[in-house]
Amino acid sequence: MAIAPFEYYAPSAVDEALAVLNAHGADAKPLAGGQSLVPMLTLGLAGPAVVVDLNRLDELRGVRREGAWLRIGALVRHRALERGEGDLSLCPLLQEAAAFIGNVRVRTMGTIGGSLAHADPAAELPAVLRALDGELIVRGPDAERTIPAAQFFTGVLTTMLQPGELLVAVRIPVPGSRTGYAVEEFSRRAGDFAIVAVVAVVELEAGGRVARARMAVAGAGSVPARLAAAEQSLAGAAPSAQALRQAVMDHELEIEPESDVHASAAYRRHLTRVLAARALTRAAFRALEDPVA
After folding, report:
1. Within a domain: residue 44?
2. Residue 163 falls within a domain, yes or no?
3. Structural domain of 17
4. 0.70 cut: is pTM over it?
5. Nearest Cα to 149, choosing from 166, 168, 171?
């Protein structure tokens, strides 16, 4: 299928990119790694009048620690996440999650900002941001705003980004000592989008009990969802495999899966419980092995 014609811009500064995006509003689409937009263009699923190539915006490639937070520029590639380059090594959960994304070519081209802005409900990185209570920094023509990950994703391929705005960075808390993490995913083939994926983060108290557990699910609803009831039940619990499994099996799942050609809603619910129990157990055991700082 032939791609519909569009105007192409390649600005060299964020303010220049914002000026173009603001001038054209909903008719303009930013291009980062192209792993989502280009297939949509070729399949006729997107037909913007203007494409704004962000790849000359070096100011969006930086990674730096800001106190208890890690700030990651929107143009940081999945491959850098997977390798834990530089300060990205402070959050090994990103390395594990990025390894599930597509293949090496996709990871070499794709960007964290592109994945989050695309907001595919089966993608791994939106669930990672939800599990970590991350924040997304969005810049418009007049101001910059910070949006919690819990609010950013509003539906399938839909976010709080407004026409003329650009996602410029992500902020995640730097994990403390005795924190474990895990990603468990089920897909038809390696590199495919998840039928269901669960991201777990477990923080332990000095005495070894659970201080806090967090779980986020991809592929089981229109947005990545947290399993709040199971999380709350684990506070103060001993991190035994049985206790972790029971927390998942005995509590409500705050997900709204739908049936499609890949799996039924009931099967997605079943997968969520199985994968959540596995992810929690691996995360807790990693936290137990983590030395106290």
Report:
1. yes
2. yes
3. 7-50
4. yes
5. 171
Q: Is 82 inside any structural domain?
A: yes
Secondary structure of residue 164 in the 3-state scheme: coil
Q: Where are the beta strands (DSSP E) in 67-190?
A: 69-73, 135-139, 144-148, 153-155, 158-159, 166-173, 179-186
Whether 217 and 235 have beta carbons less than 8 Å apart is answered as: no
- pLDDT tens profile 231-285: 999 999 999 999 999 999 999 999 999 999 999 999 999 999 999 999 999 999 9
Residue 72 and residue 87: Cα distance in Å, rounded? 9
> Would you say residue 107 lies in a domain?
yes
What does the pLDDT average to over 107-134?
A: 97
Domain of residue 238, CATH code: 3.30.390.50
Query: Does residue 292 register a pLDDT over 60?
Result: no
Residues 163 and 135 in one domain: yes
